[in-house]
Write a structure and sequence with these properties.
This protein is an all-alpha fold. It is 73% helix and 0% strand. The protein is built from 10 helices and no strands. The protein has helices at residues 11-31, 37-43, 48-54, 58-78, 87-104, 106-110, 117-139, 149-166, 174-189, 192-209. The protein is elongated, with a radius of gyration of 21 Å.
């Protein structure tokens, strides 16, 4: 007699399991990029068999995390109120939000996926709204107009990636890292008057602390 078929898993459970596995994988692999598939399944409170039904290999899982990271990055940017305030204020919010986002999906950046042409194309699509912010800043006189907006956003992304990769060897808080990235970027892209304004503000804050 033929063996009885296994009952089909309801679609809602399939989707719930996949969300749980992706969330667990992002958390576990952010802490330790060498964590095993078994570690991911355990963190999601699911069996390894369930994990392998969704992601047959570790590479398949990493690709799914990458896609999830790009989707969440797009949502993160939308929440940054890109039309609210001048361009430099918006960039500060964007850097802070994407810095936290990058730490959650650190495994993707640690595996050098930024060198993949496909990943770079997808990343550029996600960051396209930030290019528009830079263009607005150039028109309003806050950002140097002799630099390509696309280059400025690429530089920002590179600084964020470097910060995420260096996280295990630094003792800075997320806020400190975001501020460092912002100050490094603005030092190169802001117009002279904006750079002077920032230095004046920093000097006043330093004097107040003393």
């Amino acid at each position: 007699m033929p063996s009885p078929k296994q009952p089909a898993v309801p679609r809602i459970d399939v989707e719930r399991h996949q969300r749980a596995l992706l969330a667990a994988a992002a958390d576990v692999l952010a802490r330790d990029p060498d964590s095993s598939m078994a570690d991911v399944a355990q963190a999601a409170n699911l069996t390894r068999a369930t994990l392998y039904r969704h992601f047959s290999t570790r590479q398949t899982l990493l690709k799914a995390i990458q896609a999830e990271a790009l989707t969440r990055a797009s949502e993160t940017l939308f929440a940054c109120r890109l039309d609210d305030g001048n361009a430099l204020e918006v960039l500060r919010r964007v850097i802070g939000a994407l810095g936290k986002h990058g730490m959650r999906f650190r495994i993707i950046l640690m595996k050098a996926s930024d060198a993949s042409p496909r990943f770079l194309t997808q990343r550029d699509q996600v960051l396209a709204p930030v290019v528009d912010v830079v263009k607005r800043g150039q028109l309003e006189g806050d950002i140097r107009s002799d630099l390509s907006p696309e280059w400025i956003v690429t530089a920002m992304a590179s600084l964020l990636i470097a910060a995420v990769r260096a996280a295990p060897t630094t003792k800075h808080s997320d806020a400190d890292v975001s501020d460092l990235i912002f100050r490094t970027l603005v030092g190169g892209i802001a117009t002279d008057n904006k750079t002077t304004d920032n230095k004046t503000t920093d000097n006043k804050n330093s004097q107040a602390q003393n």
